[in-house]
Amino acid sequence: MTHSFDNLVWVAVVAVGLSMILRSRGVGTALPLLAVGVVIGLLPVGPQAPAAPELIQSLVLAPLVFGEALSSSYIDLKRVQRPVLALAVGLVAASTLIVGAVTSSVVPAMPVAMAIALGAVLAPTDAVAVATAARRANLPPRLVAILEGESLVNDGTGLTALRVATVAAVAGTVTVAEAGLILLQSVIVAGIVGGLAGWALILVIRHSSDVVGFGGLLLVAPFVIYIVTERFEGSAILAIVIAALMASHASHSDPTYRGRLHTAAVWRQITFILSSIAFLLLGLELPLVVGALDDAERHTLLMAVPAVVAALIITRMLFVLGAFGLTQRLHVGPRGDWRGTILVGWAGARGPVSALAAFSIPFLAAGGEELPYRDLVIAISLCVITVTLALSPTLAYVARRLRIGEGDAVALGTRVQAAMARASLAALETAETDADRDGEPMSPDVVRALRSSVERRLETAADHTAAVERLQQAADVGLAMALAEQQELLRLRTEEGIPDAIVRPLLVDLDRRIATIRAGRGAH
User: Fold this and answer.
1) 362 and 437 assigned to the same domain
2) What is the pLDDT of residues 7-36, one digit of tens each?
3) CA angle 408, 133, 380 (to 5 degrees)
4) Helix, strand, or coil here: 370?
């Protein structure tokens, strides 16, 4: 017990210390933490992988997912609910089946149920990894909401599919009716437990003024929700997400609630610590898991990992293009703009939730014998997670190449700041009127100081808006001028016989100028 506690403390110290160094240099933490974990796991000294990784991962992931959901917005998720549900349900189902089929072809001796279990483990994207990559890429708010919403909701779908697959693997078979019952039970139990827990947290928010006490309640809530949901064989991660979203929405909808800043600050620190520990633990477990395989299994691992990674990427891209790109019924951005569709298709990092799911596969089958290929499934899972985390930083590069930025978000933020400043001036005028009516007028110096401060904010917002409008106007006129030159050049070639040796270089220059202007207009 003492050794395990000491080991976990050292894991936390190394993880948090390294994360602080990386953050101070503006470097993403997930992949370096995993790499350092692998190096430490190969050494004879230092923190080691825990003896019960499924227990430690549960202790870390329950509050980590809760904290990520607390920082999300129910309103933003509701606005993108159709693409989120399509990805969280349809894509997870497709990925589970296709990865299972690919695994069965690469490892023909593996039971189909275990191959499907591997697909269910790797089907969901990771909330922490995806959110980090999306924010670092400075994506527009709608794309961030879709990616974060998908990664929060799809855990419930993937873990439910895993429950069905493991029942089949342990029992040897499962009927369609039994699979449907397991699926229904997992979702219903998660909805009931998560809804009741969220309702209880809302009651506390509305009727308690004890900010510290409510903060303590939030700290223990994810563990209680996890235990109760698992006891009734529901999807614990889905229940945690439901409760956290309800609590987050209530706390941000109540203007009298005084604990918002306190809660946000505490949970930022908690998610920072837990995400650091989770990714370091992944690295520590990887050498141990691969080392437990024999030579034949390691050879199979080398073939299976690239095949599964390719299956996940291709399945996601085809599904997103089919659901969002071709039909445009569930658009992820402005209609006709395929760039957001491509970006959503590329964003598919896996993380600690998939590792937890892999370790949750039972050791023994129904007859008491060892469950076949369990170690290989876990090894493939951790290696695929590592590869997808290595690919996640490329999301920012892809966004830049597609010229997707946060211009819309900046403009919207400026408009919100201006609206807040106008509301502040209105409140000041009301206070002046009330003070005059009560016979105790406010000091002119105080009013002047308050008014000038807010008016400066309005001027800044107006200057930004005017600058954007001037740039847009210049781009529009510049484009019209370049198009006019292009038409005149083509007229001269057609009507006056100007040779192509002169026309073509000029056309190339005009095409480049027009493309540059259009790209600039899209950025604004």
Assistant:
1) no
2) 778 888 998 999 999 888 877 788 888 889
3) 145
4) strand
Residues 472-478: what's their mean pLDDT? 71
Please tell me which residue, 440 or 137, carries the higher pLDDT value. Answer: 440
Asked if 169 and 226 sit in the same domain, the reply is yes
Query: What is the chain's mean pLDDT, rounded?
Result: 80
Q: Which two tokens stand for residue 477?
A: 């006129």
| Residue 156 φ/ψ, nearest 5 degrees | -60, -40
Q: Which two tokens stand for residue 113?
A: 């149920």
Instruction: Note the pLDDT tens digit of each residue in 398-424.
Output: 888 887 765 455 555 666 666 666 777
Q: How far apart are CA 506 and CA 499, in angstroms?
A: 11
The backbone torsions φ and ψ at residue 325, rounded to the nearest 5 degrees and listed phi first, read -85, -45
Spatial separation of the C-alpha atoms in residues 421 and 412, rounded to whole Å: 14
- Cα gap 524→522, rounded to integer Å: 5
Provide the token pair at 135.
């924010």
Q: Residues of the chain with pLDDT > 70: what percent?
A: 83
Q: Are 174 and 260 in contact (CB under 8 A)?
A: no
Contact 231, 223 (CB under 8 A): no
How far is 457 from 462, CA to CA, in rounded Å? 9
Quote the Cα angle for 350-352-353, to 5°.
80
Task: Please report, as a single letter, which amino acid is at residue 497.
Answer: G
**381-404 average pLDDT score:** 86
Distance, CA of 94 to CA of 347 (rounded, Å): 16
Helix (H, G, I), strand (E, B) or coil at 317: helix
Residue 254 shares a structural domain with residue 314: yes
Position 463 scores a pLDDT of: 62
The conformation of residue 113, written as its DSSP 8-state character, comes to H
Regarding whether 332 and 223 lie in a shared domain, the answer is yes
Q: What is the SS3 assignment for 9?
A: helix
Domain boundary (356, 375, 405) is at: 405
Could you tell me which residue, 373 or 174, shows the higher pLDDT? 373
Tell whether 92 and 222 lie within a shared domain. yes
Report pTM.
Answer: 0.73
Q: Hey, which residues does 370 pair with through a beta bridge?
A: 364
- The three-point CA angle 48-51-54 to 5° equals 110
Q: Is 70 exceeded by the pLDDT of residue 126?
A: yes
Residues of the domain holding 499: 410-523
Residue 305 confidence (pLDDT) above 90: yes
Backbone dihedral angles phi then psi of residue 364, each to the nearest 5 degrees = -120, 150
Q: Give the C-alpha separation, 381 to 354, whole Å.
A: 7
